[in-house]
Amino acid sequence: MPKLRKEEEQSPIVQKLLLILFGLGPIFIMGWFLTSKGFFNAPGT
Hints:
The radius of gyration is 19 Å and the shape is rod-shaped. By secondary structure, the protein is an all-alpha fold. The chain contains one helix and no strands.
């Protein structure tokens, strides 16, 4: 299937970095946010 836009091919290292950034980044941000709001604290403490 021909490409619609001619773009430079990204190296596999760049693709892995982007996958880690956009895949794991939101998970870490969510975990940090919930921890900062006391979500993981035991009730009553």
